[in-house]
Amino acid sequence: MAILAGGTFLMGSNDFYPEERPVREVTVAPFAIDLHPVTNRQFAGFVADTGYMTLAERPPSAADYPDADPGLLVAGSSVFFSPERPVDLRDLRNWWAYTPGADWVHPEGPGSDLGGRSEHPVVHIAQPDAAAYAAWAGRQLPTEVEWEFAARGGRPPAAYAWGDQLYPEGQRMANTWEGQFPHQRLNAVHERTSPVRSFPPNGYGLYDMIGNVWEWTATPSDVNQHRSCCSTSVYRPEYLSWIVKGGSFLCAPNFCRRYRPAARQRQPADSSTSHIGFRCVVR
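Below the sequence we write its predicted structure tokens.
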């Protein structure tokens, strides 16, 4: 972990999406944060020690989802697939599919495995799964304020974690999408997630704060809004949706410019996908 002294910084952005506004001065107390997202190897240690089953491995209850198609009430998770041609970007079903049998051990569904991916971020993790791992490790999930403070790396305010250019001097700084999303990916060394530490660290020595996988926080989202304003509240189980931060390997200039510290999304607590993971803090 990196030990951060805390301090006051400018959070948010006025230049991109409405939910990031306004830029405001925020103070955060000292804390320590994982150097990189929790990996498959680390999560496997938790599972081996506790026998924990993620939400994606448990069949959904009909009582919890009374309006769902009974045929979809099987264990699984949402998996990204790349269409062969341009598609309507208003319909997420053009590149996401709920896949029975997809979970953290089978990232693309039955027939896939973790071979060669022990140091990749664990994915198909719902918010309660991340909270359970953090409790086992004697840690917590970061608040949105803590996460963004860490992501900015002690730098002056800038669009990206490393400055104001997405590709400074042509260098790729994070695992994000190049090309026209979702059908064309250019210059992709990694088809999906990449091993942690594959890209340069930020000013605090933290890896993958931007791109690779979205990361859960302990900040709840207003369930009555598509996205919510900033909150410094820590984990409260009665909230149904939470803020995720950092963007993922699917963020692209033509679709999702959320490969920035200020970017934020609302995610239902029981939602797991092939591009959401987490890291932990100690306060």
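Residues 80 and 90 are 15 Å apart (CA to CA).
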